[in-house]
Specification:
This protein is an alpha+beta fold. The protein has a domain of 100 residues. The chain is built from 5 helices and 6 strands; from the N terminus they run ααββαββββαα. Helix 3 links the parallel strand 2 and strand 3.
Length: 144
């Protein structure tokens, strides 16, 4: 029986099964000619939903994000009940140097952080999402 706290480890062993990126990651570049200009699909690292609110994590080993991802995050948070946390750090070692929050089309400057700070940000978002149902906001908009 799976743990009740949502613990969901990646059950992939690269030594036994090969490189995950080569074996399981979709080759999204195959669809480049399906989209106009230089628009491309973006690879988002993690997403969750609580009460219709979305939280995206984008992990970078640097503070730079591409113009396309910047536009995507700004518009995503403007048009959807979504928050994006851009984490600068080392995903292999799970270290965090800084976090930027994208909310309502605004990307905050990088704030120094560590893994516990990221955990606190995620927990604070969870508390907010539990108290602020996007499903209720959608119903209110549809009824007015």
């Amino acid at each position: 029986m799976p743990p009740s706290n949502g613990y969901n480890p990646m059950l992939w062993n690269c030594d036994l099964q090969g490189c995950f990126n080569l074996k399981k990651r979709p080759k999204i570049e195959m669809f480049a000619d399906c989209l106009p200009g230089r628009i491309a699909f973006s690879d988002i690292d993690a997403v969750t939903e609580i009460n219709g609110n979305l939280l995206f994590l984008e992990w970078k080993d640097h503070q730079n994000i591409s113009v396309g991802q910047k536009i995507l995050f700004e518009r995503l948070t403007l048009l959807c009940p979504a928050t994006v946390l851009i984490v600068e750090g080392d995903a292999e070692r799970m270290t965090v140097d800084s976090i930027r929050t994208v909310w309502n089309k605004t990307i905050s400057p990088p704030e120094p952080a560590d893994i516990n700070g990221l955990r606190r940000e995620i927990a604070a978002w969870k508390d907010w999402a539990l108290a602020n149902s996007a499903m209720n906001r959608t119903k209110e908009i549809m009824c007015n």
